[in-house]
Amino acid sequence: MTLTDNMTKLVKIYCYVCEQWEEKLQYCCQRFSNNNPPAFTDQEAVCIYLYCMSVERRFRVKDIYGFASLYLRSWFPRLPSYVAFVNRMNRLNEALRLLAESVLTDFQPEACDTGITLVDSMPVITCSGKRRPKVAGEMVTKGYCSTRDMYYYGLKLHAAGYRRRGHLPFPARLILTEASVNDLTLLKSIGDSFYDTSFFGDRDCWKLMAASNRIEMLTPVKSIPGESEWEKQRNRAWANLYSAAVSSVRQPVESLFNRLIEKTDIQRAAKVRSSKGLLTFIFGRIAAPFIFLVF
Known about the structure:
The chain is an alpha/beta fold. 44% of the residues lie in helices and 17% in strands. Strands 1, 2, 3, 4, 5 and 6 form a 6-stranded mixed sheet that branches.
């Protein structure tokens, strides 16, 4: 990739951010002081943040600022000090959330199969479950990650994505909750917003049926407590086939999370130092990998 290609992407990201800013983002972070607007604009700060993560693969704020100061100073001559840049980004967490929402809404592929929705969740870890959280105590709770077989403090990112054959599913919903919130509880709360679709999940949470929306929940078969060995052997063949079929359909949503972790390192939030910083950390890492859709 040439320097010209990178600069073209920088310009496109900036133009899209400015377009969304004029439409709705400016209303979530308005200033009511004499410093409105500042010399270094919020649009420039968001553009630098997303460009450095999505194109330059720099995830720490210190690395983002260092790259911008060294290589983007001619593009952003009013770049403030590091402390001012961090404070600015922490104040823009709601703008990053709305920007991520806009990208996912504006650029949804036509190949999405809205009749099949894949659901899963992953932890955003601020500290181990053996310690007490010192940051964002009003937000984080204790949860359990079955994949890692560990307890942790943090938040949980839930995804409900439309299936795309041969591609990663495209997120229809990305919802941030406390770590203690169960996937089924969340599905029941958002089920009314989905119509004529089948949910594929990773655990036996019975059947989620909504008569008005005709929704059903399909999960791999799990053994029933107290079931006899004879019943297990009798049902093993069809249960294995059914579970394999469901797992093959919902496996791509795990790949979506793996791609998100690979591209942004979203799970490791141990170095975040404030509640606003945690929200900026998460929403920025959701927006960054999908901002490439504007290209």
